[in-house]
Design goal:
The complex is a heterodimer of chains A (112) and B (115).
Chain A: E1 4-7, E2 10-13, E3 19-25, E4 31-37, E5 43-51, E6 54-57, E7 64-66, E8 76-78, E9 87-94, E10 102-103, E11 107-111
Parallel strand pairs in A: 2-11
Antiparallel strand pairs in A: 1-3, 3-8, 4-5, 4-9, 5-6, 7-8, 9-10, 9-11
Chain B: E1 4-5, E2 10-14, E3 19-21, E4 24-25, E5 32-39, E6 46-52, E7 59-61, E8 64-69, E9 74-79, E10 88-96, E11 103-105, E12 109-114
The chains are: A mainly beta (112), B mainly beta (115).
């Protein structure tokens, strides 16, 4: 049972480039989330989804987009990478609201 | 306003010492949930505990214990007889209905346990 799988683990982007961070879960969870973690700032919610076809903005959505075409996958898209998007990105899922989240291992992104 | 405050940025202890990590939260909801997560040096986030607002009973799990006090809006975490493997960043988080039940995290406390 893989849980939540994120790829890639590391990536360096140049300013203005785009990329997609992949997130897949095999637990049939409806709820999925993308967070970013900056030093000393905790985790900030970027986007979330309560089921296939439904997504909504979190606290810091600017510069990102998501889609949820299946229950399993919740990719995060960066269209025009900026240095401010240098961070560690975590995907998470849960079977019900207010339950503990299962997190992926994270993607460390550096924009230069 | 900060919904979850972890005032201790970093704590250093010597092995076998007890250590308490503080968490103060802010909410107007009557129904809410509090969580603790551990992030070891390897980077993954590990769920430790979930507590709902109607259950103020303290909880103990091995060397870990949690003290929930609604009167002071606190949900503190104590590690008894700390070990080097406890070295990690610990996050407290809040989930409330008015925020769509999404987790809001504190800034985290870095715990360093020295041998």
């Amino acid at each position: 049972n893989a849980g939540v799988t994120q790829t890639p683990k590391f990536r360096i982007l140049k300013i203005g480039q785009s990329m997609t961070l992949q997130c897949t879960q095999d637990m049939n969870h409806n709820y999925m989330y993308w967070y970013r973690q900056d030093p000393g700032m905790g985790l900030k919610l970027i986007y979330y989804s309560v089921g296939a076809g439904i997504t909504d903005k979190g606290e810091v959505p600017n510069g990102y987009n998501v889609s949820r075409s299946t229950t399993e996958d919740f990719p995060l898209r960066l269209e025009l990478a900026a240095p401010s998007q240098t961070s560690v990105y975590f995907c998470a899922s849960t079977q019900q609201e207010n339950y503990g989240y299962t997190f992926g291992s994270g993607t460390r992104l550096t924009v230069v | 306003a900060q919904k979850v405050t972890q005032a201790q940025t970093e704590i250093s202890v010597v092995e076998k010492e007890d250590v308490t990590l503080d968490c103060v939260y802010e909410t107007r909801d009557t129904t809410y949930y509090l969580f603790w997560y551990k992030q070891p040096p390897s980077g993954e986030l590990v769920f430790l505990i979930r507590r709902n607002s109607f259950d103020e009973q303290n909880e103990i799990s091995g060397r870990y214990s949690w003290n929930f006090q609604k009167s002071t809006s606190s949900f503190n975490f104590t590690i008894t007889a700390s070990q080097v493997v406890d070295s990690a960043v610990y996050f407290c988080a809040l989930s409330e209905v008015t925020y769509g039940n999404k987790l809001v995290f504190g800034a985290g406390t870095i715990l360093r346990v020295k041998s």
